[in-house]
Design goal:
This protein is α+β, with helices and mostly antiparallel strands and 166 residues long. It has one domain (2-165). 63% of the residues lie in helices and 14% in strands. The protein has a four-stranded antiparallel beta sheet with strand order 1-2-3-4. α2 (13-37) runs parallel beside α4.
Length: 166
Amino acid sequence: MARHTFLRNTTSYGVWLGIAALILIADQFTKVLIISTYPLGQGFPVADFFNIVRVHNEGAAFSFLATAGGWQRWFFTGLGLVATVVMVWLLKKHPGQKLFGFAIACILGGAIGNVLDRVMYGYVVDFLDFHYAGIHFPAFNVADSGITVGAACLILDEVLRVRRAH
């Protein structure tokens, strides 16, 4: 009985903030390792389809606006800060919605991680490089992974909500 009570109580605002913090810490820790170990453009192959390589992204996803001249740094920083406030509010308002809370927590941790990069360095540090047949997917990081997992969970949450409504 105690185990069931524990599981029921884990869907609180604090748990979601904790998950976001774990993603943020993992993101920043891995970026510090990459920055302190590899110069820009350097890394090492892990598998035939995957490398660790230090890349700087001054834009957003898929290097969107990377060559815009510098204003994008503060635009994406501001956008990330506004999104952070909205996500914290959403978590506070809906702490009992497990999938929704998990999704927002993942996105929140990732968003803060990338905002910190923009403030500290002027760019986002990416290092996960997947490729196939000479074609490289845009490099990404732990924060981007959190955002992606969170977005997928948000879509799943909405699909499940709509199904329950019918």
